[in-house]
Known about the structure:
By secondary structure, the chain is an alpha+beta fold. It contains 26 helices and 33 strands. Among the domains are: about 85-185, 2-Layer Sandwich (Beta-Lactamase); about 400-500, 2-Layer Sandwich (Beta-Lactamase), CATH 3.30.450.20; about 515-675, Reverse transcriptase/Diguanylate cyclase domain (Alpha-Beta Plaits, 2-Layer Sandwich); about 700-930, TIM Barrel (Alpha-Beta Barrel), CATH 3.20.20. Strand 15 and strand 16 form a beta hairpin.
Amino acid sequence: MPNSNPQLETALTEHKRALGLFQKLCTLIFLFIGIIVFARSYVSYQQTMTHMREHSEEHLAMLQKTFYALTERSSQELFRASSQYQVTSLAELQRGTFSSPSLTSGIDSVLFISPNRTIIASIQQEGRQLRPTAEQIDNALRDISTEQRPKAALICNEQCFNSAYVPVITDEGEELIINLNRSSTLLLQDFFNLTNAELLLLHPSRESDLGSHVLMASHPDASIRILKSALNTKPSLLTPGETFIGETPVGYFSLAVDNVDTLSPSLLFGVLVDESHIPGEVTEHLRQAVITSLITLVLVSLVVYFVLKPPLDRLAAVTRILPQLPNEQFALARRSLQRVRRRASFRDEIDDLINTTAAVNDALEKLSLDVQSHREELQDKVHALTEAKRFNELLLDNAPIVVILHEADGRIRTLNGQGRALCGLDNAIPAGANINLWIRDPERGITLSQTLEDLIQQNTTKLQNEFPFLSYSGELRHFLWTHSRVDIDDESLLLSLGVDITETRRAEESLRWLGEHDRVTGLLNRATFTEQADLHIQSLDNVHDIDLIMADIDNFSEFNDRFGFENGDKLLRAYAQHMAQHFGSSSLLARTGSGEFCALRASSSGAKLDAKQLEGLTALSIDINGQRETVSITVIVERYRRESGSIDDLLSDSTSVMNLMKAKAKGHVYLAEDDDGKKRREEKYLLKQQLLRAFSNNRIVLFFQPIVDLSSGKMTHCECLIRMLDNDGNFIPPASFLDIANEAGLMPRLDYLVIEKAMRQQVVWQRAGVNTRLSINITAPTLDQPDFAQRIAEIVNRTGADPRALIFELVETDALQDIDNARRLLKQLQALGASIALDDFGIGFTSFEYVRELPVDYIKIDKAFVQFVHERENDRVLVRSIVEMSHGLGKRVIAEGVDSRQALEVLRALDVDYIQGYYISRPVPINALNLHTTLPD
């Protein structure tokens, strides 16, 4: 009998103790159905609440329309009532011949007003003092004058009343305004009688107790209690268009607030409805849903139990049989399967499983008999693998790469056919042959083994480099190598795989030449000319003067338009050849623009510039379609002085002079003798040299300017500002050298220096328990650096700074070359824990685009909008808009340039989060910084 399997017996024992599949399925189905049923009840409850809320909102909207309709009806009644006052003349009014209004009309007072706002006469009910103020009369008459029709409004002074203004003409042709006033009590009564809802007249601007907000109400005491409770829940309720629907301590109510009319913009009205029926209806609905869900759950569970139990019992029987198969108990398994009940009709997957298990049992029994024959077949396969190994060796020998297995000192163990061919070896490698004899660099005097020290010392497991292969014929070929360390029979060897890239390098050299030269003329291009000019100047001794000659073909674009680009290229080649003949091989020539050429020549020291020597460059004749065409060329000559700056500066100056001279006359030679221009170049050059020395001598220092949180009045972070120390120890402001640094491409170097200094200061503060954050400026050229993220990570690791205490301020956003790359880099900074600020917001045309596209946390409003915000209304409007936009996007606002208390108070009222400026503190060195800076008293 086959041996039993202990692992299978253990599995069977654990299976008996485990929870059965039937119990698991029942539990899972019960939970799943329960979740669905109760989720449906919850959704139904939410839908009921939403429906009732929508119904309440529709009811409130209808009540608001009813209020406006009653107000309009009251106005029309007052307009009609004005017709009973027939005025013959203004003199009759002054005699007071009119009697008081009748009580049945509901009118409390009538005023007769002249067009110049003078009250000529008035009548009123005894003991009633309802009349508008002079300002209200003035506003109404202005609207009548503009709209040319009667005007009515609901007014609340000491009491609330409807006031109508009707323009009339007396019998004598005089203009007159009749003002009729009636108490709003009738309006409230009519509203309550029609709707059975409460009406409130409100004045939200009053700053006293809540009772003073309610000017008039159908039931004041109850309404005030309800309104107070609603305001506790929703403080913004006393805003036009706001609604409240919900529970209060005195019941469930709905309330809507809106403006009364345009003549009374500060007057609001509210409609209040008792919604006490809603909680009961919702509770009943929820109770019915829960009962229904429980009944459904029980019924479904019973159905599942009786449906699943029989088939799962059969499945369990099959499960107990399966462990017999690995023990080769095929006969026992066959008898056990015969005892499992099978259904003749309505077959299911369990019947298929029983049949499949029987088939597998038979197949395994047959398979056991075939194992012996398979062992013999395996021996044949081992032989086949040996043949495959020989095939692989043949393939390796014929592969177009060099494969070398060698020791650390270079002794060859294995070399494939390509390698043997380059080394001039036959199939038998001589004993002691060393690969360093062929793979070496004669120029540098090093061998392959010397480049593999890291691999030999086991500092790495794989290495890649480019190294030459000196073939037996003496040809030096370029190879790209991949080296790895391999262990064979407990011996550590090196495997080197080389690909011949000689042709690739030759193609690269050709492309490099094309990148350095002009395609049309073959002369140097502008970039290469600038690089080689510096080298050319360095190669000349100080006894030589150096002249830059710039020649520009006049009207070259018109020449192209007239004769075509092919002839334009012909002209360029002809003039390039003409210049080469004129200057010879000792001068440096280049095409630096569309029709612009430059030459750099050396002359004897002290020799004067002579325009006549260059007049031959001012004209050129060329054959075009069989006809001779003559073009003129303007030539500028400027002497280079080593102390005055770089060739780039000289080219820039020469271009400016060229534009000026062409505006005067073309086709001549001009000698640039502008002393002022030279002086400016010399000053820029000296300042640039001073900046470079400041880098080397640690004369770049940081100043710190506090930024204060307006909510707490305390300093939360500081902005790091740069200063440069001159030789006398005086601080040079950044405005004097940042433009020069930018032109010289030094901004990334300057930014990284500031970042490292700031991070080191943050570490000092952190160790001292100071939690003040630091804000560091990053310019667009730095952010566009390809290794920006890597450099920041290196500085963080080197200094040990906490990125969460850093804020990076992005400046010069208009200069960003790739906004998508900037977004990716800023998100990486945020992932480290740092925050991002957008500096100088409001300057330029793209600020809003960058707010939308870049992941910034702070918006810094430029000081141009802040310095006079307390004096200029336009600045206040702009700042308010920026603050609202920023807060709407979830960003905090910093106002820089706050230089006065008045500006501070205006910014506080505009909800600015932080301020920065001279009113708080000027930028100071670290030893003068007060870490406990607060708002001045």
